[in-house]
Specification:
- It is a single chain.
- The protein is of the alpha/beta class.
- It contains 12 helices and 14 strands.
């Protein structure tokens, strides 16, 4: 997979935030080396967040998010700020831009963001960044002629001064960005600790109606590529050829990775001593806090006809007749509840959301079941987990939920 082919969810996500007309879009254009974002003297030019992918030497593939400014106090401005705050959840790194009329050590009382959680000034936004554990830089943007300002002082937070309009100081900013990238960003593996060079790994990949014609789904591609990079020996098969594949191997594999929807079948037909996991479980570990997902799955056994479940899909595809999130998992949950009390299976309430849609108020739900999240980055999944945890709502993911329903959650291996 080339850098150009890197999915957005695997890129370092850099958010650009600040008040209106602080030069955020100008900075994006300077960083990308092209006039990608619309620049205007009119405040509020940027409305919805603007996304731009590129490669930066020494960093690799990145995704920039240019956001609407804080200071728009109109009704539309409040809606724009909601989008801005949602974009923050996706960021691995934040650039907080101060324009030539602002100082990084001021209270900036004349520029007040509007919206829940960001009322006030830059300092309050910084408080939000710290709560979310977001590494950030203060970028002092000087647009006075071609000179870089020297009159702006900074507190203990990291800062860098640039002239975005004239592209002065941009390389220095890039060097500063490198210093605040989370240490584990480029080191996380899907199969960490589960297999090593020379190990045979069997991948069970049903090619049913959900499988895209002529290609594999993203988690399969990513994990297959990782196994090749680790010099493992991956062997792929469909569900109906699984036992034949195992029989044909001269030695038993070190690991089996299966599609979660056939977890139980593979478990019941694999060699007892061979470790088993699923693509979705590996995604759960790579994208979020797997220990919390496992803990959340324990509450599935407590569901009744009075319970309410939220199923969240990262993809926005139209559901098919064999859809795992819309059809199969709900059927499993209803069967589980029905087994406790006849008639309760159909009473179980199951809501669905897709893509970036995710309710802020989760208190009405007894559990949230998130998909593998191959289209989301780790920061965004962790923000959802934190939101659920704050409201005391257990959260798990597709693969771990299916393992729990199948009674094998303690029989699978976790990264």
């Amino acid at each position: 997979m080339s850098l150009q082919d890197t999915p957005q969810s695997q890129r370092l996500t850099i958010g650009i935030f600040g008040s209106t007309n602080s030069g955020k879009s100008t900075l994006l254009n300077a960083l990308t080396g092209q006039n990608f974002a619309l620049v205007s003297e009119i405040a509020g030019t940027t409305t919805d967040p603007v996304y731009k992918t590129m490669e930066i030497n020494g960093i690799g593939p990145v995704l920039f998010i240019d956001t609407a400014g804080f200071a728009d106090s109109t009704e539309l401005g409040k809606k724009r700020l909601e989008k801005t705050m949602d974009a923050l959840k996706k960021c691995d790194v934040v650039l907080l831009v101060y324009g030539q009329h602002e100082k990084a050590d001021s209270t900036h009382a004349d520029k007040k963001p509007a919206g829940d959680g960001t009322e006030g000034n830059y300092d309050e936004f910084i408080t939000e960044l710290k709560k979310a554990n977001k590494p950030f830089l203060k970028v002092i943007n000087s647009d006075i002629n071609s000179e870089i300002r020297t009159d702006v002082t900074c507190d203990e937070e990291g800062s860098v001064t640039v002239n975005a309009k004239n592209k002065v100081g941009i390389q220095n900013l890039i060097e500063k960005i490198k210093t605040i990238i989370p240490e584990d960003f480029n080191s996380r593996q899907f199969t960490s600790g589960l297999c090593a060079e020379g190990d045979t790994v069997v991948l069970v990949m049903p090619q049913d109606i959900q499988a895209p014609k002529g290609r594999l789904i993203l988690p399969q591609v990513q994990i297959l590529r990782e196994l090749l990079d680790k010099k493992c020996i991956p062997v792929c098969c469909t569900t109906d050829k699984f036992t034949l594949t195992i029989d044909k191997l001269k030695e038993k594999p070190a690991l089996i990775i299966t599609d979660s929807q056939v977890f139980k079948f593979v478990y019941e037909n694999k060699p007892e001593e061979v470790a088993l996991t699923s693509f979705s479980v590996l995604m759960a570990s790579n994208k979020g806090d797997i220990s919390k997902f496992v803990e959340g799955a324990k509450t599935i056994s407590l569901l009744t006809g009075e319970s309410k479940v939220l199923i969240a899909e990262a993809c926005t595809h139209a559901p098919l007749e064999e859809d795992i999130g819309r059809i199969k998992i709900p059927a499993m949950l209803r069967k589980l509840v029905e087994g406790k009390k006849a008639g309760d299976g159909e009473k179980l309430t199951i809501d669905f959301v897709r893509g970036a849609d995710f309710p802020e108020n989760l208190a009405d739900y007894d559990i949230i079941i998130q998909c593998g999240s191959c289209m989301f980055n780790r920061s965004y999944v962790l923000s959802r987990q934190k939101n659920a945890e704050t409201q005391n709502v257990p959260m798990t993911n597709y693969g771990i939920a299916i393992a729990a329903i199948s009674g094998i959650i303690d029989k699978i291996v976790l990264p």
